[in-house]
Amino acid sequence: MQIEAIRPSRFGFHRFAAPSEFYRLAGRLVPWFASAAVLLAAFGLYLGFFVAPTDFQQGEVYRIIFIHVPASWMAMFIYAVMAFWAGLGIAFNTRMSSMWACAMAPTGALMAFLALWTGALWGRPTWGAYWVWDARMTSTLILLFLYIGFIALHGAIEDPRRADRAAGVLAVVGVVNLPIIYFSVQWWNTLHQGASISLTRAPSMAATMLEAMFVMMFAFWSYAIAASLSRARAILLEREKRSAWVQAVIG
C-alpha cells in the first residue's frame, strides 16, 4: 500500500514569514485594526468623559487618566515587544524580526511622548508643577530617549543589516528600564500613587472608570497594531524593492 506524503497545510501560519505573504496579510489587517481603534477610542472617551463619575478628590481633572494610563502601558508594552523582535533578529538573523522592531519604534515613541505630555498636564493642577524629577517620570523620559536613540541609530547606519544589529543591541539593553518604571513607586518615595489596578487585590476605582480604561487600552492597542503593520509594509517595500514580488506590487 502506497502511503501518500503528508504536505503542510497551505493555511499554515509559517508561510506569513515570507515577505510577500506578510505584506498581503498586513494590507488586509490594517483597515480592520484602524477601524477598531477609531470605534473603541470613541466609545472609551464617551465612557471616560461623560459616563464615569467625578473623582471625589481630584474633581474633573482626573479624566486625563483615560489617555495617560493606556499610553503609559502601551509605551512599556511596545518597547518590550520591540526588544523581543530585535533580539530575535540578532539571535537568528531573521530579516522580518528586525523589520518588525523598526516598524514598532515610532509608535512606541509616540506613546511615551503622549504619556509624558498628559502626565505634565495632569501634574500641574494635582502637584502644582508640570514636571518634577519624579522616579517614574524620569524613567519614562529615559524610555522616550531609548526609542529616539533606537530610531536615530538605525537611521545613521547605511547598511540595513548592521543597522538592525546595532539598534537591536540598544533595544535589548534598554529593557532593564522597564522594571524600573513599573516598580519605581515601590522602590522610591515618588509623587505617583500606587497602582489602582492589581492582580492581587480588587481595583480601587469605580467599575465605569475601569471599563473606560480598558476600552481605551484596547483602542491604543488596535492603533499600535495598525500603525506598525502599515509601517512594516513600507519598510518591506523599501528593503525588497529589487524583488520580483515588489516590482509586481508597485508596477
Describe what this molecule looks like in 3D.
This protein has helices spanning 19-51, 65-92, 95-127, 135-156, 160-174, 177-187, 207-239, 244-250. The N and C termini lie far apart (50 Å). It is globular. It is mainly α. It has a single domain (30-193, 204-237), classed as Four Helix Bundle (Hemerythrin (Met), subunit A), CATH 1.20.120. The protein is built from 8 helices and no strands. The longest helix is centred in the N-terminal third of the chain and has 33 residues, at 19-51.
Key attributes of the depicted protein:
73% helix, 0% strand, globular, mainly alpha, single chain, Four Helix Bundle (Hemerythrin (Met), subunit A), 251 residues
Strand proportion: under 5%
Query: Pairing-aware structural class of the strands and helices?
Result: mainly alpha
CATH architecture: Up-down Bundle
Summarize model confidence as the mean pLDDT: 85
Number of strands: 0
Distance between the termini: 50 Å
Name the helicity range: over 70%
The largest pleated sheet is described as: none
Anisotropy-based shape: globular
- Low-pLDDT windows of residues: 1-9
From the alpha carbons, calculate the radius of gyration and give it in angstroms: 21 Å
Quaternary status? single chain
- Can you write the helix and strand succession as a string? HHHHHHHH
